[in-house]
Amino acid sequence: MILSSASVVAFGASLLVVSAAGSPARGSSLSGANIKRDAALDDWISREEPTSYAGILANIGEAGERSYRADRGLLLASPSTVDPDYFYTWTRDSALTFKALVDRFFVTKDGILQIHINDYIAAQARLQPVSNPSGTLLPDGSGLGEPKFQPNGTAFTGSWGRPQRDGPALRATALITYGKWLLSNGHRDAAANNVWPIVANDLAYVAQYWNETGFDLWEEVRGSSFFTSAAQHRALVEGSSFAASIGSSCAACDSQAPKILCFLQTYWNGEYIVSNTNIGTGNSPRSGKDVNSILTTLTTFDPLSPTCSDITYQPCSHKALANHKVVTDAFRSLYALNANISVDAGVAVGRYPEDVYYGGNPWYLATLAAAEQLYLAHAQITRHATLSITSVDIAFWKALDAANAAEGTFPASSQTFTALTSALKAYADSYVAVAQKYTPEPYGALAEQFERSTGAPLSAKDLTWSYAAFLTTIAARDGELPGSWGAANISSVPPETCVGGGVAGTYTAPPTNLTWPDVVNCPVIDDLHVTFNVLTRTVVGQDIFVVGNVPALGNWNVDGAVKLQAMRYREADFPLWFGGVELARGQRVEYKYIRKDGGAGNESSVVWEDGANRVVEVQVQGPGCRDAIAVGDQW
């Protein structure tokens, strides 16, 4: 039975860390005390965590170091502009990332992060009414299925796989999560007036179009996607509760969610989850083994689910664990990187075994997702204090520990429980270790893929989703778990025969002049991160520097000038050079760009730009705890 509007879950602060006894508890950890940590892996994680967080922030316009020309609150998929060009904002990628950032905010109470979240919500309010090739917001909501937009928030009109129906559901989930926090902290008006209008449109879209095909999260085939269906089901369940909490309702949520839940059961083929169905003719044949299904368990995870439910595909469920083995095993003999790795150790994981994009390689986010599901499963099993194994998932457990795995139910006091949960945590760590092995040092930048034979980073650089995947995986490892979405209230078994659905929705243009409560823990910031961006032509062997009248910019001494990085920005022979420095707030800084041959520091090799000195006022507008600004120049 779908959660009724009268049965509202107590929201709290939305991010719950659940104690082994089963009650919500702040600051506790689900990491077993008997789990031995790998010191080298722990050390890498401690270094990669700030790198990944900074990598996300660098891709958020308008002041992000790598997001030049992106509007405030819009998150770029990657700063890569050629081979491939990911210099766009995707609804799906942004929602997944900001869901992770909202969950992080609940732990850190970081005022700067809260401003980014507020900016994101305001940006989505601006995006929803933008007419695009998928359609419009009014009157039928069809435009909400558009997958990506230009970095300035205008429509992308090129050929693409559209519509993509996961974006509205994922965005609703991210916003609802923050809306719950607003409610629990006395900011009902912000939840009702800023968050709900955007969420209501997205829920209306899901309820109307869930039974129609769309492109999958890899944007390659049109059909029914397990990931999309699960995201849609969760959004409607959680959306109904959120609506009730602000004195509204979502009748379409209540009527359509059970139908989607029934449809979700059809993706299971008896051995694993077939991630894409109803794809029709004209597509390359696929086995259906796809990390899509592992990513889905991260969305369906509910820390308060009373059982390892197969119905909602909880990470610890028999079906989810069996599927994990089938999907990851599909890559064991596929990549040279995975040669000679035992069955109880993690491997590099790609999207699906038939993949040919960039030659078909492992992805950082896919490999990390394999770890994250296992951490979440460990958390659930530990909380339930019982491990159940059936014929469905016995192969998974035997691969981890053949000596102890057997069908049956094992209490936490048993040796079998202890041995298998320890093996499960070690197995999860081994997937993170794979990501560690192929992450370049010393900077820890995460691309989209790593090459299947050499492990070299490949495809889009500084991929936002890769960084977000690292953060959510490590949060799960540390027992910092996202809040409940209501899976515990779904107790009935779906009917054997599913019925179609879809209810025409009502859509309204959301307000764009949003007013937010004061941010929490707004720090006093003495220095701002100032990014200098300059479009200028160079030839091989030339570098661009910025020099100015303050020590951080060399005090006009070319030897102390700050070297910028090159990034090709759209025009093939007109690269963007960029770089950031910390400058004291309130300063009036004068600066110029210089060109050096071969990075030499002597005056004879230096070309200064003509004209008067450029000037930047080191100040931000809006809330005082913004910590970054950017300037854009052309030389």
UniProtKB/TrEMBL annotation:
It comes from the Eukaryota. The active site is at 216 (proton acceptor), 219 (proton donor). It comes from Periconia macrospinosa. Residues 1-21 form the signal peptide. One of its GO terms (biological process) is polysaccharide catabolic process. Belongs to the glycosyl hydrolase 15 family. Substrate binds at residue 160. One of its GO terms (molecular function) is starch binding. Keywords: Carbohydrate metabolism, Glycoprotein, Glycosidase, Hydrolase, Polysaccharide degradation, Signal. Residues 522-635 form the CBM20 domain. Its EC number is 3.2.1.3. GO terms for cellular component: fungal-type vacuole. This is Glucoamylase. It catalyses: Hydrolysis of terminal (1->4)-linked alpha-D-glucose residues successively from non-reducing ends of the chains with release of beta-D-glucose.
